[in-house]
Amino acid sequence: MIDLRRLHVLRAVAYFGTVTAAAQALYLTPSAASQQIRTLGRELGVTLLEPDGRRIRLSQAARGLLVHADAIEEQWQHAQAALRSAARPVSGVLRLCGFPTAVSALLAPVAAQLRTRHPALTVRTVESEPAASFDLIFAGHADLAVIEAIPDGPPLTDSRFDQQALLRDPFDLLVPADHPLTERDAVTLADAAREPWVLGMPGSSSRQHVLAACSAAGFSPGIAHEAREWSVVATLVAYGLGIALLPRLVQLPTHLATKRIELVGQPTPSRQFLTCIRRGSHEHPAIAEALSYLQNMADDLPPRNSA
Known about the structure:
This protein is an alpha/beta fold. 41% of the residues lie in helices and 23% in strands.
């Protein structure tokens, strides 16, 4: 009989790329992770790890096993969900994760609702960027993530995850309160082509969104300042040091003298929010209820005007 824990270590090596990275994600030592996989190989009568210079890699037999391993994990998730569905009241631990806006606008309210409705359920929330959220879901350290779709994320067809569209968050133009663009009836992104810009840090998804949107509008933004936090971006804008694109769900300090302008025309930049769980776990009572709350919140979000 296959030990599912050992099979999970094998899957982790394939997912994270190396035994060392997989061991770190699963809180194992590299030698313990290797031993788990070798023991699994002995149980199956095949070699799962083979030397590759000074390193080791998954064998052809291991890669053949991985074709079925994700399906086995999915069925195990179904089984756990069925067991939990039979138990009342809803209890245990539900672990949520997401990037800052997702936590503030969506996950925190959901956690509060679940805590009120199910006193026996412990809900834990962790702030994490999209790539890290996928890792947490895969490794079993989180059960549900709200992520921003990123170019290098797992595709929707990845058999290890169940990703569903949640909402689209448009970007508004953020300018100083007395900026000339606030006097116009309609503003396109191209109207801001000659302005100094405040962008996110290199490598951030926000920076990628801005650069892609400006490129589609026919210009490259003149970068005057760079910042990591949205509050810092807004502060720089408030002092007249540049303009920025700001997601509509981002809440800003009310004392800042800025104005959001809803852009018209095409392209209209936006970011896509997704929910992500382990494939097969959607029937788990706590996960199913959290997903339902999230979808209801996304459906009820009012559109914001440019004021």
